[in-house]
What does this fold into?
Amino acid sequence: MTGNNVVGIIFSNMHDDKLRELTDIRTMGSVPFGGRYRTIDFALSNMVNSGITKVGVITKSNFQSLMDHLGSGKAWDLSRKHEGLFILPPFGFNNSVYQSRVEALNGIQNFLTQCKEDYVVMSDCHIVFTMDLRPVVAEHIAKNADITMVYKNSVMPADLPEKICVEVGRNRKITDVLLTEGSADKVNWGMGLYVISKKFLLKVVAEAMARNRLSFVRDILQRSFEDCRVYGYKYDGFTGVLGSMKSYFESSMELLKPAVRSDLFPLARPVYTKVRDEMPTRFGLGSKVVNSIIADGCLIEGEVENCILFRGVTVGKGAKLKNCIIMQDSTVGNNTNLNYVVADKDVVFRDGRSMMGFESYPVYISKGVEV
It folds into this structure.
């Protein structure tokens, strides 16, 4: 399989309401993650590394930071005369802003119709993972499937925004699709990644809109698995679910484990992002760093333990940071103590401040706030 017969569609705003602290001023796709990335980087890199050279990003609101991050798509080798990266406007049925996945797909039907590709890979941004999509598409084609849904067999994350559970029968054909409130047992839960035949997608979206059926899960998936060829594809790697501030913090802290980093950032499938030219991080005399991820351009003069620091963060003398996520260009003053704190971009902690949250409820400081 080559990616030239596949077009990628990324929903950048889906499930924004589940992570209000971080998506109040940005899309889910532009939420910072892992020290230097945005969540959309993982979906885009999965597609590009699988040979997909045409990707459309559906926007809705608060997408200024997303467009600044994506630019022309050069970081993902998508700045091209032909194909490449497309930013799709946030208008759905009757030129109003879409309210559901079906309306969003209906709003880009002209884009899909003009695409010469026969298959569509659709991905959300609220789950961070790295995956080679070529075997998924190859299996989809080999089985002549209408829909192939990627799922994971494990205990369903409590903060999963869209709790879809599927039953998989012989030859991995999906025999039931359930919307559930979660389970303490292992189930096959959907990861928001689908491979769909383009003709089938256009047909079912048009039929759903004609009947005012706007839910992709209830009105397309649940109505299709009996009469259509709907299959599942199992994924076994790391998944970071961003469904609340608690799960965002937990997924970020998982990156401090070497095994998780190796799974999420394999050498064979790098995760690309916007390059910001920075000098290497500088460590002052008496500084101490333990089990932390430190991005470029930082100045560390205090103590940092079990933390993730984004680009350009300054940690003053005598400061002690533990179990914190400090985002880009933030400043921690001298003799400041922080524990279980998530600070957005451009936050300033003045000298001598002390702030403590808890593992299940980290303290969040909004962008640009001075404490």
